Amino acid sequence: MTTGFRARRADRARDGADGAEPGRAPEVLVLLCSVGAAVATVAQPFALGRTLDLLLRDGGTGGAAGRWLALSAALLVGELLLDSLTSLFTGRCNAVWTASLRSRAFDGLLRAVPDRARPFTPGDVGTRLTLNAADAGGAPAARAALAASMVTPVGALAALAVVDVWVAACVLAGLPALALVLRTFARDTGASVAAYQDAQSQIASRLLEALEGAATIAAAGTGARERARVLEPLTPLAALGRHMWALHGRALGRSGVLVPLLILVATAVGGLRLASGALSVGELLAVCRYAQLTAGVGGAASLLGAVVRGREARNRTLALARVPALVHGTRRLPPAGPGELELRGVRVVRDGRQVLRVDGVRVPGGATAAVVGRSGAGKSVLAAVAGRLTDPDEGQVLLDGVPLDRLTRKALRTEVAYAFERPAPAEGTIAEVVAAGPRRVSPEQVGEACRAAGADGFVRRLPSGYDTPLSAAPLSGGEYQRLGLARAFAHAGRLLIMDDATSSLDTATEHEVDRALRHSVRPGTRLVVAHRPSVAARADLVIWLEDGGVRAVAPHRELWETADYRAVFGAGGAGAAAPGASTARRAEPEEARP
Ligand SMILES: Nc1ncnc2c1ncn2[C@@H]1O[C@H](COP(=O)(O)OP(=O)(O)OP(=O)(O)O)[C@@H](O)[C@H]1O
């Protein structure tokens, strides 16, 4: 018990750190209304019993019977009103809590170190933010209703003891069995609920993966296999569902036998007490009703189920809020710094494996550095570390001499811009999407950035031009990529990192974009992940990665002398032709050669 309490307190303390919880007011209102309704329910049999006794004694002529009858009616109306208010406040409480849990989970996800959020697939995140958040949001009201639901049986038992202690003793003797049924139900359901929610998440994740790869699946004709893969968790899900229904049914069945039995015994004892003259007819009526209400404790099973489900769902939803966040510092960058980038003793470990080791690499301010290497060499990890999308496990990355983790969030995000291979979909018109970001960007600057990224032409051809909603714009992969570039150009600070951001562009467009980048975009340092030798050739220096380490840092023309370097671009392996020789020329047109 103490351990459970401590665990709950620790949970609350940890959750508190995730963000503000909504006030307790909605929950308290549910509790007050439910308790009020329960009190009215408990008072009714007593009032009705007194009314009946007075009517039988006075034949309905006394004023007292009328007053008791009016009280009974008032209690009934009060109970109905309070029940309605309980429903109203329950809806409000559920909505407030669900919204709060969703916001906290979502904020946590946005604050998180992107790499740490990677284990949560989009489908899993969707399930946690929708189904799980709704279940978790319903728990506080269910908890209040569960607490209030104890008022009726406890109150009824107390009232029963006042009316007749013998009948109360009989009912009390049967209660431990009912409590045991409830406890077993709560314990057994907990584990199944967690596994059930996990299986739901798996189906959602697989479905989203399948939707993303729909074209590949259609082309490969593997639809049936994919369908089987997506629905694979359905079998354990169905088994878990059946198991939970069985648990529910068993709990209801057991309480369904125990409850009538208790009522029967109470009625029989009450009847004997009436026969012996210890109870009046009205009191017998009250006794029977109180026995019913006391045994109604079994009805708490469904509320208990909602509380258990909500607890598991809350853990799943708030797991998103607990993903480690990027903590920012308080320093600013020196004004008008050139954007010099330096990596000192940087080491990145993923899944226990070193995936990047870079020491003493410096990109002078205003220079363009190409990052090249075979697939899996660590280029994207380097790009992520260079702009602090993730922190290295060891070492430091400095921009104009300031470690990135000491910078304020604003300084970091205004001075370091990113463009990716696949820009994230965004809401709004094209102009709004390009303008969205840390800097204030005017419509003229949006146009300039789009021209530099080679996007202006196709944007103008859209029905509403720059005012076309992005979601309604039929864009090719390359066009979409160019909008991502335009956004990065519009917000370019002293460091611009392009991670495979021109991979879908044809060579001529890429060349134009490169020229515009030099002349029309705010000058600064560029770090460009490159797969084409043409890009490396135009850079001031190349950081050549191999198996997560730096093989060399030098201009492209020098590195091209090395056969291994040419092999990175598929331009012949070791022992291939010298620079400018036919193999290299065949592999890449004119501009590829130094
Ligand atoms: N979050 C992660 N968890 C485990 N391994 C990771 C993670 N991120 C990267 N890696 C591993 O680090 C290595 C480098 O990955 P990275 O994405 O930087 O390669 P890359 O050079 O950009 O490759 P490509 O050209 O194919 O995009 C890979 O072996 C990759 O599997």
UniProtKB/TrEMBL annotation:
Region (Disordered): 1-20, 575-594
Topology in membrane: Multi-pass membrane protein
Residue ranges of every copy of the ABC transporter domain listed in the record: 341-572
Key word Transit peptide present: no
Subcellular location field: Cell membrane
TM helices/strands, residue ranges: 156-182, 251-270, 290-308
GO cellular component: plasma membrane
Highest taxon in the source lineage: Bacteria
Main location: membrane
GO molecular function (one): ABC-type oligopeptide transporter activity
Keywords recorded for this protein, A-Z: ATP-binding, Membrane, Nucleotide-binding, Transmembrane, Transmembrane helix
Domain ABC transmembrane type-1 positions: 28-309
Alphabetical list of SMART domains matching this protein: AAA
Name of a matching Pfam family: ABC_membrane
Bias (Basic and acidic residues): 8-17, 585-594
PANTHER family xref list: ATP-BINDING CASSETTE SUB-FAMILY B MEMBER 10, MITOCHONDRIAL, ATP-DEPENDENT PERMEASE MDL1, MITOCHONDRIAL
Protein name: ABC transporter ATP-binding protein
Species assigned in the record: Streptomyces caelestis
